[in-house]
What we know:
The complex is a heterodimer.
Chain A: H1 2-9, H2 12-28, H3 30-53, H4 80-89, H5 93-112, H6 115-120, H7 125-158, E1 164-165, E2 171-172, H8 174-191, H9 193-205, H10 209-226, H11 258-283
Antiparallel strand pairs in A: 1-2
Helix pairs in contact in A: 2-7, 3-4, 3-5, 3-7, 4-7, 5-7, 5-9, 5-10, 7-8, 7-9, 7-11, 9-10, 9-11
Chain B: H1 21-27, H2 29-49, H3 61-70, E1 75-84, H4 93-96, H5 114-118, E2 124-133, E3 137-144, E4 147-154, E5 157-162, E6 167-172, H6 179-182, H7 188-197, E7 203-213, E8 216-225, E9 232-240, E10 246-253, E11 261-269, E12 287-291, H8 294-301, E13 322-324, E14 331-335, H9 343-358, E15 360-364, E16 367-373, E17 378-382, E18 386-390, H10 394-404
Parallel strand pairs in B: 6-12
Antiparallel strand pairs in B: 1-2, 1-11, 2-3, 3-4, 4-5, 5-6, 7-8, 8-9, 9-10, 10-11, 13-14, 14-18, 15-16, 16-17, 17-18
Amino acid sequence: xxxxxxxxxxxxxxxxxxxxxxxxxxxxxxxxxxxxxxxxxxxxxxxxxxxxxxxxxxxxxxxxxxxxxxxxxxxxxxxxxxxxxxxxxxxxxxxxxxxxxxxxxxxxxxxxxxxxxxxxxxxxxxxxxxxxxxxxxxxxxxxxxxxxxxxxxxxxxxxxxxxxxxxxxxxxxxxxxxxxxxxxxxxxxxxxxxxxxxxxxxxxxxxxxxxxxxxxxxxxxxxxxxxxxxxxxxxxxxxxxxxxxxxxxxxxxxxxxxxxxxxxxxxxxxxxxxxxxxxxxxxxxxxxx
Amino acid sequence: xxxxxxxxxxxxxxxxxxxxxxxxxxxxxxxxxxxxxxxxxxxxxxxxxxxxxxxxxxxxxxxxxxxxxxxxxxxxxxxxxxxxxxxxxxxxxxxxxxxxxxxxxxxxxxxxxxxxxxxxxxxxxxxxxxxxxxxxxxxxxxxxxxxxxxxxxxxxxxxxxxxxxxxxxxxxxxxxxxxxxxxxxxxxxxxxxxxxxxxxxxxxxxxxxxxxxxxxxxxxxxxxxxxxxxxxxxxxxxxxxxxxxxxxxxxxxxxxxxxxxxxxxxxxxxxxxxxxxxxxxxxxxxxxxxxxxxxxxxxxxxxxxxxxxxxxxxxxxxxxxxxxxxxxxxxxxxxxxxxxxxxxxxxxxxxxxxxxxxxxxxxxxxxxxxxxxxxxxxxxxxxxxxxxxxxxxxxxxxxxxxxxx
Lengths: 289, 405
């Protein structure tokens, strides 16, 4: 009642302030920084491994097509390290990091006993939830960009850069390649929205941050395993991870949009379903801590 | 709480902080509704989009076939979905002969070799992209997970590029040659031309209404064998009403069930594709395999003389070929002589028992043998090394073998 009325009277600037303070709290945590550090290390590992493997001279194709996508092209163009690093981190590292942050978003506050103080502020629960969701999505973007930028830096240091060949065999300039890399990073970040919404919903269910994180990451692993079972073919299109690797379609010429749009639609659906479920749970919940 | 869970008023104001359990439960109406709307949308949109069959002027089958023959589409690009379900995981040579009988050349080692790659098309569902600009420039790309295999024909160069392994295959062809034939069948047009070659008095050809394919209005041409004994039930070809281009090709087996081969455009444009589509320079560091023998390979893949039936493609590239029977019930017969034209033929001794367990033992005037069945093609391998292959039922195959004896 009074809380919500107060919220309505507050200016948008106030919400922005809440968002800013949430961002600061999240990104100042050692845990968050450690997660980002691990993510930044993955491209370094991949880059150094490829460099050592092919150190004797320019690689001649090779690899036979094993390993993450685009890995055979890294030695010829460092920009491909961005795509390889994203392909390597997307199945597990990135969503795990997002799961940890999303699971902790509300349950962590409840666990630490700070949630009710947040609610004392005239923001309202819906607004707080939206802010938390926005923060988690901001983390998705930050995490993806950390991987991409780190990969670009390592790629530029260890390998030559220049015009690149799309997977369709046509050539594009380095500038266009960079633009596509940025677009791919955005698509990858958007691919994580489903996990983010799921994690936020789980976070409203419990007062234990650890339990919420474990549940979210556990769900992630479960879905990844189920996604490998061919007998469950009929269910696969509904898994949030099903179209994840479609970001590589942006490297086709012309771009193949079908799976990309399906991926974005699926993520939006997860955001709507679990976002509203989180709202239903959070706004009707007794806050005791 | 449950009886009133669907009460809309409860969801009205978020400011309503009533702690009653009923209201709390009512909030869950929102996510459930979202899910319901999503499910309904996913279920209904294709039904609405399928706006029924278009109205087109009447046309006879003969006129339609002429339309296909006259079709002079030189520029085309689009996405093709190809689904094949032959009903048997691996019959080695038989299936790969779909990729232009290029089995022998598949041992080259480079993953960018066209014959090695396009064999994959013989099973499962694949998405292809095709672009054609006149007889000298074509491109077919097989879309894979985060990778693509492209076969580009530009003037006298033929490039195969496998982006997963970054390997390149290069060959040359005579500019005046029949380049088109060197490409494995990829578009509905290729398949339709094969099917229409078999139109004779053993075949019934009818126009069966209209359909919409890739957003274009099309006539549906149905080709059916008149004889019984063929495994081919019907071939349906959707022909674009404006250009006469076949847009979709479906082959259903006489035994019923899903189509054995279904090739159709999901997206098509008759504009000239961008010139850059056909330009290819091997990327830095790519392993290039040269193949000067593509000319030979091309001739090799051309249809054998006196083999007008599409089903006989499957026997293409094998020596000592003999045709038994006529029309759709033609059976190809050849003697492996122990050389092993087919893996199963050469396996004789040790593997014989194992292979035998995959097929059915049959006896007849020809002796004894084993029948290997797929949903479309049946093969009879006799104990003395003779092989009979055809798109006919098992009984018809045994009968042909008896007569051919």
